[in-house]
Amino acid sequence: MPSLLHRALGHLVSCKDTSRLVSRMQDGPLTGWQHARMRWHLAVCGMCRSFEQQMRVLREAVRRYRD
Amino acid sequence: MTSDFHQALAQHRPYLLRVARLQLRDAALAEDVVQDTLAAALAGSSGFTGKSSVKTWLTGILKHKIVDAIRRKQREPVAASTLDEEADLEDFEGLFKDNGAWQAPPADWGDPEQALSRSQFMEILELCLDKLPTNTARVFVMREVMELTTEEICKELAITANNLWVILYRARMSLRECLELNWFAGGARG
Q1: Mutation for testing the A interface, residue in B54, B102, B132 having most A CBs under 10 Å
Q2: In Å, how far are A9, A18, B47, B124 from A12, measured between CA atoms?
């Protein structure tokens, strides 16, 4: 269960920004600040966690399609 | 040159064709490029050290042949203006509310193994890939199929890292939406 502060921080970051960071993370390391913002938000947002899972599935799907 | 080696190469032909087609979007050109790749591989078979798999080695040759083909086809690697257009994020505004929350929340895709093991799913993925704008698809394939790094792609296409990330984001958002509509939300899943 995220702390109150953690939850407050998570809601400061939008789903839109988080989705961009989740995609961006697949192409190279994020800055510490980007990573922290993304994690805060993911901790409080199930929809973005689903999105994160979808991005992993997509990557795996394309590799299987290729091979 | 042993015929065994020849056979080992030919065995990877379907895979090479798939990659080349996705990348070039031109079936005839893809055939040519794969033909060139296999010929170059046979001619240079002494260059195969066995340190990597035959497939990895062939992919490396194919990568160069594809880049050559793209260069021949259009004098500039990819028209920068088109890439800039495709790097425009406007289209995505509809996916999010004004406060940046999801307009239509992404669904839980459940156990992905179930989908990934089905050939029908792969057909839908192929349809979704085909629907991407040409340059967006090309960039996505460089990243996800050929597994080039951000740095390599930027250098090859002469675009900024920022534009590259936007294009990749666009590709992934379109693909996830397409898969969600056509597979995960449809009846095909069961």
Answers
A1: B102
A2: 5, 11, 55, 37
CA angle B41, B45, B46 (to 5 degrees): 145
Of the three residues B44, B73, B102, the one that is the final residue of a domain is B73
Residues of the domain holding B122: 80-189
Rounded to a whole number of angstroms, the distance from the CA of A37 to the nearest CA of chain B is 14
| Contact call for B168 and A60, based on CB within 8 A | no
Q: pLDDT in tens for each of the 67 residues of chain A?
A: 567 777 777 778 899 999 999 999 999 999 999 999 999 999 999 999 999 999 999 999 998 888 7
Q: Work out how many domains chain B is built from and give that number.
A: 2
Give yes or no: residues B107 and B167 share one domain: yes
> What ipTM was predicted for this assembly?
0.90
Domain limits of chain A? 4-66
A-chain CB neighbours of B179 within 8 Å are 54, 58, 61
Q: Which residue type sits at A26? A: Q
